[in-house]
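Morning F.,

Quick status update on the modeling queue. The single chain you submitted on Monday has been processed. Sequence for confirmation:
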Amino acid sequence: MKKTIAAVVCAAAAALSVQAHAEDAKVLRMACESTYAPFVFFDSETGKLKGFEIDLLEYVAKEMGRKLEVTNMGFDAIIPSMLTGITDVGASAFTITPERAKRVLFSKPYYISGLSILVRAEDKDKIKSVKDIENCTICAQIGTSGSMRAAKVPGAKVRNFNTINDAYLELGNKGCKAVITDRPVTAYFLAARPETAKTYYHLPTVLNSESFGFPVSKNKPELMKAIDAAIDKARTSGEFTKMYVKWFGEEPPKELLK
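Structure tokens below.
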């Protein structure tokens, strides 16, 4: 019996779909924004991405029998890329928030952080709390919890940038009064550039306590379970602690090891 053209096309499409699914099963597609050291950032010597999240998700992928495949993109594009099926899991220090939890699933927390304020060194004695930047221009990275917090400062004008490094640069150029972002990100930025001590001052105050988690599409609950199981194994085996000490110079708090 002869096959119709339509039948041949359908069969070919089905074959391609099966092949694509098989290929997807071999990789764990991670989306990130590459300026979030020490969580994820480019190594200037190798030109490759590295960081705590890279190490942790490489471990997760290996436990799942997959290979980690990383795509660098704008922070505000990460969740849409998962919702449309382009990527599987997001990174770049995602704060677990009720708003985001309406759109995606989150892994168990792997870091407990808080937002902090960076100002110019010349303003060190003038700005000592978030109240001192009311009615000022604040720089932040678009789509982040730092940007959301900046928008709540009374009278503030928020200037959003595609990368946090651009926000830091604008602060140095006196385009804003302060930058609000995740404390460990700013701390690493300053530690990696000792010369910035004369330019910036990092307020010791933590604005809030927040947890970071890996987001995954709500259409992939089994993937989320597999990621959590792999992270749990990393905790019990001691690998999580090794990674944490490597990137943050201290052991993780007890609540992250449960």
